[in-house]
Automatic annotation (TrEMBL), chain A:
SMART domains: AHS2. InterPro entries: CT_A_B, Cyclophilin-like_dom_sf, PxpC. Pfam families: CT_A_B. The keyword Mitochondrion does not apply. Gene3D superfamilies: Cyclophilin-like. Residues 25-296 form the Carboxyltransferase domain. It comes from the Bacteria. This is Biotin-dependent carboxyltransferase family protein.
From TrEMBL, chain B:
GO terms for molecular function: 5-oxoprolinase (ATP-hydrolyzing) activity. It comes from Bradyrhizobium ontarionense. InterPro entries: CT_C_D, Cyclophilin-like_dom_sf, PxpB. The keyword Nucleotide-binding applies. This is 5-oxoprolinase subunit PxpB. It holds the Pfam family CT_C_D. The gene is pxpB. SMART domains: AHS1.
Length: 344, 243
């Protein structure tokens, strides 16, 4: 039996996939990866379904060990130092651990969540077609809770495919929102303050909600509304005026006015924004938001086409000697001669 | 015939959901219109609608804008909302056993004191009510019930408890409710039920539906303990009395 063992892991790491849908009417939140583009990128690298379950790793470090055979993995999302037996592993690449080898991940840099996909996926018992962990409800598989050292995943033996890399766009700029559904609970002045201010994510944030620090927003008619449905990216403003962006483990309903909603295409980017890093919101129309959603889905669907083999820059001595036989003029600047392959 | 009700407001909730708002307050008619639209949407099976979430006063409709256009969906939602209330004929009715007071209802005495009633009177009034599941939300199975006797209304606790046991039956404001999982709660705990509104590996996983009717019956501590054991084995505990 080939397994991947969690040798050490920080808090806030769990199995997540595309999410659990169909029971929000019963109070069951979708959960799912905080950054679905990075989840899909990791899965693409090892040939899995885009929204297959992977290990979502929070800001802290972790180590994983292959036991009983080689295991092929891929890492995407927040950049962080990573190595296997002192060989550096880049973000957005796949790597194969030989039996007994350990992947060591350091702290996240420039993001919050990394995704470790396992070739062949994670074996578990789905509920509502999902393995995603919802710690509060005790749901998720194979472990219905955040991961701990000693947890073991039964995995498929590595196929022997070469190391791969994936090119991803690097979007930047303001986090786009559609105003509402309760923006009429705020004055024009407050809406301008919301859109015109720098915000930072508080260190007390988690998968349920990101608490924002910035100028307090005042309500027109008080901060209580009769509970109303929520979506990923709903921006609630409670009584203290500090907005909370509802994230993947949100409650399915909430009783504070929602000034705006983060668009789907920017949700993962907000999820990856580190505590203390200032950012702004920008309002877009429904038509713009939905056009962005179509582009985002096209990007997701196109991820497998962005995967390519890693070309190492080591000299292939055999290729060199084979090519450099008597009578052949060999250009020292022709890369194909040196590498024996055509670089991308 | 003219629509006897005003049109609901359509409020965008991001790029993939729309809130159909019938009222801004807790309102019996609005809730029945929410549930009527929910039933109508289920029957219409409109391509692109992925999920609906009924609340006291609004229906949140999740949709895929790559399948159905926002404006086209809005037109359908307004048409299906016109002039209908949820029918009473097929409402499921449940009788739910509750162990009131003592260690299972630690706020009963304080509630009675605050309302100038005896604990027995509070229980009698709570048991006498017929409640509708107005919405389920916040955490799996947390059922918000409308229809609380106005003499039992009282504001929520000043300091919400961070952890209450599973199965609590509580009152807060003009509502009563059943919480399935252990969790935080700002309401006043009158008792506990062994019925689980949400239980993995049981069919059905979720017992109550928005629109169902619930009444309570009082049981003693010993019966509650027996029912707890039976619930662990997958028994529903709640008795379905209609239809």
């Amino acid at each position: 039996m080939t397994t991947l063992v969690v040798s050490s892991i920080g808090p806030a790491s769990s199995v997540q996939d595309g999410g659990r849908f169909g029971a929000q009417r019963y109070g069951l939140t979708p959960s799912g990866a905080m950054d679905k583009l990075s989840l899909a990128a990791a899965n693409s690298l090892v040939g899995n379904e885009l929204m297959a379950a992977a290990i979502e790793i929070g800001p802290f470090g972790a180590t994983f060990t292959a036991k009983g055979g080689a295991v092929r993995l891929a890492l995407a999302g927040a950049p962080r130092p990573a190595d296997v037996a002192k060989r550096a592993v880049e973000i957005n690449t796949s790597v194969t651990l030989a039996d007994g080898e350990m992947l060591t991940l350091g702290f996240a840099r420039g993001g919050s969540f990394s995704y470790l996909a396992i070739e062949g996926g994670i074996a578990g018992e789905p509920m509502f077609d999902s393995l995603s962990v919802n710690a509060r409800a005790g749901l998720g598989s194979p472990y219905p809770r955040p991961l701990q050292a000693g947890d073991v995943f039964d995995v498929q033996p590595a196929s022997g495919a070469p190391d791969m890399r994936i090119d991803l766009p690097k979007p930047s700029g303001a986090i786009r929102v559609v105003m509402g559904p309760q923006d009429d609970e705020f004055s024009d002045e407050m809406k301008a303050l919301f859109l015109g201010s720098d915000w930072t994510i508080s260190a007390t944030s988690d998968r349920m909600g990101y608490r924002l620090e910035g100028p307090p927003l005042r309500h027109l008619h008080g901060h209580n509304i009769v509970s109303d449905g929520t979506v990923d990216g709903s921006i609630q403003v409670p009584g203290n005026g500090a907005p909370i962006v509802l994230m993947s483990d949100r409650g399915t309903s909430g009783g504070y006015p929602k000034i705006a909603t983060v668009i789907t295409a920017d949700f993962g980017r907000l999820a990856q924004t580190q505590a203390g890093t200032p950012f702004r919101f920008k309002a877009v129309t429904m038509a713009e938001a939905q056009a962005e959603l179509r582009r985002y889905k096209d990007l997701l669907r196109g991820l497998p086409g962005r995967v390519s083999e890693i070309v190492t820059n080591e000299f292939d001595i055999d290729a060199l000697f084979t090519a450099n036989v008597a009578g052949h003029a060999v250009s020292a600047t022709d890369v194909t001669t040196w590498l024996g392959v055509t670089p991308d | 015939m003219a629509d006897p009700f005003p049109s609901p407001r359509l409020l965008p909730s991001g790029d993939s959901a729309v809130t159909v708002e019938f009222s801004r307050t807790i309102d019996e008619t609005a809730n029945r219109r929410v549930l009527a639209l929910d039933h109508a949407l289920a029957a219409a099976a409109i391509d692109g609608i992925t999920e609906t979430v009924p609340t006291y006063r609004s229906l949140l409709v999740h949709y895929d804008p790559c399948v159905i256009d926002h404006d086209a969906l809005g037109t359908r939602l307004l048409a299906l909302s016109a002039g209908t209330l949820a029918p009473d004929s097929e409402v499921r009715r449940w009788r739910v056993p509750v162990c009131y007071g003592g260690e299972h209802g630690i706020d009963l005495e304080d509630v009675a004191k605050a309302l100038a009633l005896t604990p027995d009177e509070v229980v009698a009034r709570h048991v006498a009510g017929t409640y509708r599941v107005a919405m389920i939300g916040f955490t799996p199975g947390w059922s918000y019930l409308s229809g609380l006797d106005p003499t039992l209304q009282m504001s929520r606790r000043h300091n919400p408890r961070l952890l209450t046991p599973p199965g609590i039956v509580a009152i807060g404001g003009i509502q009563t409710g059943i919480q399935c999982l252990a969790g935080p709660c700002g309401w006043h705990l009158l008792g506990r039920t062994a019925m689980r509104t949400f239980q993995l590996h049981r069919a059905p996983t979720f017992l109550l539906e928005p629109g169902d009717e619930v009444s309570f019956t009082a049981v003693d501590v010993k019966t509650f303990a027996e029912q707890e054991r039976a619930a662990e084995g997958g028994e529903l505990i709640a008795e379905r009395i209609a239809p």
